[in-house]
Amino acid sequence: MQIIKSLIKLFVFVCPVSAVAQSTYLTQGSKEYHFIDRLEIKQQKNTDLNFSGLKPYNRRAIVMQAQLIDSARSAKLTKVDEYNLRSLYMNNSEWVANPGDDAKSRRPILKTFYKTKPNLLEVNTKDFFLVVNPVLQFQYGNESDNNETQYLNSRGVSIRGRIANKIGFSSTIIENQERGPSYFQDRVNSVKAVPGVGFYKPFKTTGYDYFDARGYITFNATKYIDIQFGYDKNFIGNGYRSLLLSDWGNSYLFAKLNTKIWKINYQNIFMELVPQFKKRSDSLLSRKYAAIHHLSMNVTKWLNVGLFEGVVFGRKDHYDFQYLNPIIFYRHIEGTIGSPDNALAGFDFKANIARRFQLYGQFLLDEFILSKVKNNPSNWVNKWAIQAGVKYIDAFGLKNLDLQFETNRVRPFTYSHNDTVANFTHYNQPLAHPLGANFQEFVGILNYQPTPRWRVNARIIYYNQGLDSAGVNYGANPLRDYSTRTMEEGYNIGSGNKVTTFNGTLNVSYELRENIFLEATLQQRNAKIESVPGTSNSTFISAGIRLNMFKRAYDF
Length: 556
Fold this sequence. Notes:
Layout: H1 2-14, H2 32-43, E1 54-55, H3 59-72, H4 79-91, E2 121-124, E3 128-143, E4 149-163, E5 167-179, H5 182-191, E6 201-203, E7 207-220, E8 225-232, E9 235-236, E10 252-261, E11 264-273, E12 288-298, E13 303-313, H6 330-336, E14 342-353, E15 357-366, H7 370-373, E16 384-392, E17 401-410, E18 425-426, E19 429-430, E20 439-448, E21 454-467, E22 497-513, E23 516-529, E24 536-547
Antiparallel strand pairs: 1-9, 2-3, 3-4, 3-24, 4-5, 5-7, 6-7, 7-8, 8-10, 10-11, 11-12, 12-13, 13-14, 14-15, 15-16, 16-17, 17-20, 18-19, 20-21, 21-22, 22-23, 23-24
């Protein structure tokens, strides 16, 4: 932590803060993300939206690009798109020169609260901008063959703003009590962490009580370099999943540099993580560290290509200075210091086609050794992951119906390491795909917005995975030391105790007013483990209300 703080101080000292207005970032899981996808595909031009594989999005950037598309009128927006565009402006009004009457409330409470439709409290002066909003989610449901009521009770507050157009800040604190479906409880009890959050305390025997707290500051070092320092999550990719870096797990401390100039975007992330541990009484957890960089370029007006490299390493509670170099190949450093760390490399791409389609994909190599797999691809060192997907907007000529299909394949032992510290995990959870490794997955998603306020989301996830069998390590769990394997060859995707899982979810929501959703969810999950007789079936039905918060997903 100290070295990351020192890094920030160094950049502040070396690079004086310019007068460029500093923006915060769009909250992950916000409704705007899907709409931005639609805008990008419809526009099919070389804009800042082409860098949308890096999340969260900069609020200022998405407003500027949306305004360009809006003024050009070349994207052929539907009436629902127009509604979503106005909503985007309202929720990011600090970057809209003239928000108009759409953003203003007719009857503010006590002439102070909800002066604008999205925000409980909004202050906008020359040198100071502040937004304060409540965060709420109440969901109650029932699961088949389970006598206990399932629930999610979340209350909190979110704050964002900027000072003197130079420093941006954001903070979100949410207190939660949750009892999810039985397979969700099994996951928590297995890894000793709540998916997406981490730390928890027991609540009423089978429930969980936990905080979800995030925050950061951000500023411009120069016109082209943004610096962010905080405790939050990041996501690299264009798919529903990411095989490079996802927002699945717990938040972490990080320093991020984003350099954007011409057609190039270069991002560095320096991270402080928690290695795997056994839950115990209050005590200081150990630390491990990671350095990640991603270089992307708009090759054409419709094609974006990116290169990824990351390294995870364990030191005795200190960062390795060699990995602080923002412009170098980490694999070279890792080799020169004795190859003790876990180095990964990969690439991603995105192609917008015919204003209707987006093709995307990722490929990752984890300490791949060609000489060992040349003649035998089933060797354990053949560690890679691949993703391919397509998005289809206004499908079959039906306005506002969007489809997405995605497949993910990850070889055994990918993301793992021989010391259980340098594996690609944080707080007992994967940093990439929630399933870990040794699986093949298919994802189908339908998003339909028939009217401005009604939304329908349907999602089908089907996967095969090879689990450990009788204690034998088949490479599915990245938390396990890969040196515990029992053979050198004979590993294929699905090797081990095979589990086949179907997870289907249907969610229908109505936006009562800006960012307040009434919704109902139906979920069916079937899991068959090869070595266990019968099939585990779960039907889960829930309903509730959500305000300024992402929808909780049990999608594994």
